[in-house]
Design brief:
This protein has 204 residues and is mostly helical. It contains seven helices and two strands, in the order ααααααββα.
């Protein structure tokens, strides 16, 4: 019984590894690019009755088909370059519509555009948390920066502001009393003529 269980596990292991490998990269987009490139390459090598262009005109078809195949393989084995591979595949597939027998009778162009878009839009899936996966660490508690009212110092009593005048400081009252303007001097007698100054007397 144990041998049968081990045999079943060994049989399921390659299929599980294949599924993990396929889900970790844009597999279907790369497959569409490889098929589109192979179809575009095969048209110039077909018999003369099927070919539209022959001779040196078939070289661009083969080159563009090889580029699309390489971009599809790049999406499989180097998925970190999926954005570049997807953009180049769409551009080459659009150019093949004019330069390579209508893009392999439209089949290669359509497959290349769809495959390049799938490669460019593919995103890796987040690892699912299964029973055997390690639990995620709990987030650290954020310390509360608000002050604790129980440990706050008592508030100082409010200071009373005197309503009357402020007592003097250093012998000066505050606010100072208002200044009174000096009174003008009385006019001199006798029509404004001042008496002559008196000479000082000499003492005997």
């Amino acid at each position: 019984m144990a041998a049968g269980v081990e045999t079943g596990r060994a049989r399921r292991h390659p299929w599980a590894a294949w599924r993990r490998w396929r889900k970790g990269r844009p597999f279907w987009g790369g497959l569409a690019c490889v098929l589109a490139g192979a179809e575009i390459c095969a048209i110039p090598l077909a018999p003369l009755e099927i070919m539209i262009h022959q001779g040196i005109a078939g070289i661009p078809s083969v080159l563009m088909g090889l580029i699309m195949i390489i971009m599809g393989l790049t999406a499989w084995f180097a998925p970190q370059y999926r954005a570049l591979a997807g953009i180049l595949t769409v551009l080459v597939a659009a150019a093949a519509l004019v330069m390579s027998n209508l893009g392999g009778f439209l089949i290669g162009t359509l497959l290349g555009i769809v495959g390049g878009g799938m490669i460019f839009a593919w995103q890796p899936l987040a690892p699912a948390s299964g029973p055997g996966a390690a639990p995620e660490p709990a987030p650290e508690p954020v310390p509360d920066l608000a002050p604790d009212p129980a440990h706050e110092p008592p508030a100082a009593p409010p200071r009373e502001t005197p309503s009357g005048p402020v007592p003097p400081v250093d012998g000066k009252a505050w606010p100072p009393p208002p200044r009174v303007p000096p009174r003008p001097a009385p006019p001199p007698p006798d029509g404004g003529v001042l008496p002559p100054p008196r000479e000082p007397r000499e003492s005997a």
